[in-house]
Amino acid sequence: MRILHTSDWHLGRSLHRVSMLEAQAAFLDHLVSVVRAHEVDAVLVAGDVYDRAVPPLAAVELFDRALHRLAAESVPTVMISGNHDSARRLGVGAGLIDRAGIHLRTDPAGCGTPVILTDEHGEVACYGLPYLEPALVKDEFRTDRANHEAVIGAAMDRVREDLAARGPATRSLVLAHAFVAGGEPSESERDITVGGVSAVPAGVFHGVDYVALGHLHGSQTITERVRYSGSPLAYSFSEAAHRKTMWLVDLGPRGEIDAERIDCPVPRPLARLHGTLDELLADPSHERHRESFVEATLTDPVRPADPMARLAERFPHTLSLVFAPEREDRDDSLSYARRLKGRDDQQIAEDFLAHVRGAGPDPRERTALREAFDGVRVDEALHEGTSRRG
């Protein structure tokens, strides 16, 4: 059986306020073309279909079109909800959609009830474990501890119990949305540590032939049988070096695994540039990033004038500007009170400006500060005089 494993679509998400809907639509076009070209037998989507619980209408419409296109291919699709999704909303109409070959698994109580897929070698039991928030599902699974390992372990016990009641030739797939130990996170996954220690050992999934994971955005092989597909698009600059792919997995008649990565289209590459403004504007090696989404970290000791506008002349798709001046830090061993001792309000304000900007005020700014403090003192004097007369 040939399986296409994908996850973390995050439909409706933007990158530094730039809409990704067009790129997400292009990815879904690509997914359908891969299903056709590689004669895929089943598609697995391991959670975070949407980016938030109440997605924008454009994202819902994009998802709706994707479901219709996958159903039209007559290729079974199994989806679970992730921590970004609203399980209740995503699961609306699941019973009806099921008839079209689109199997939404969003209810934790159904973890031990598989979707049965078939090929020339027999049955494949496909179990969907939606994102399991420990505090919300511990009663369902009757666990003593409200943490991720406990509830996922209990869900997998149900999977193994059901699988044991089936014929010995039955092969098995599991979809799960979790942080599995050994995985490498990026900055764009929402933290799931609220329910206790978030990482679960890969061994919790023992006894099944393939585990299609979602949550981490980098494609990763935890073990031969436990893998993350990663997100199809980069959703933060921490993912700039990621190769965005899906897993094409061939499941043999005795549970053998043969997996290869299928590249996803890259609408615009991401680049993280570091240096002074003049270096970034002049370095010829950066020419290849002219059409990239750019995060620029400026190391100028003094914040340059109009840095974003000047960067945009060379890199029109600059999205993020970070200021990290390379200069010797002041002696932080002195207490705040000692650093302020003997200094008036004007000097304190000028020191603060120098600290955050890298240079003190120019004459015009110094005059503006002085006039502001003089105005405050006049107001205070007038207020005090009025109070005495009262």
UniProtKB/TrEMBL annotation:
This is Nuclease SbcCD subunit D. SbcCD cleaves DNA hairpin structures. These structures can inhibit DNA replication and are intermediates in certain DNA recombination reactions. The complex acts as a 3'->5' double strand exonuclease that can open hairpins. It also has a 5' single-strand endonuclease activity. One of its GO terms (molecular function) is 3'-5' exonuclease activity. Belongs to the SbcD family. Residues 267-356 form the Nuclease SbcCD subunit D C-terminal domain. Residues 1-218 form the Calcineurin-like phosphoesterase domain. Coiled coil: none annotated. Heterodimer of SbcC and SbcD. InterPro entries: Calcineurin-like_PHP (IPR004843), DNA_Repair-Maintenance_Comp (IPR050535), Metallo-depent_PP-like (IPR029052), Mre11_N (IPR041796), SbcD (IPR004593), SbcD_C (IPR026843). GO terms for biological process: DNA recombination; DNA replication. It comes from Streptomyces inusitatus. NCBIfam families: sbcd (TIGR00619). Keywords: DNA recombination, DNA replication, Endonuclease, Exonuclease, Hydrolase, Nuclease.
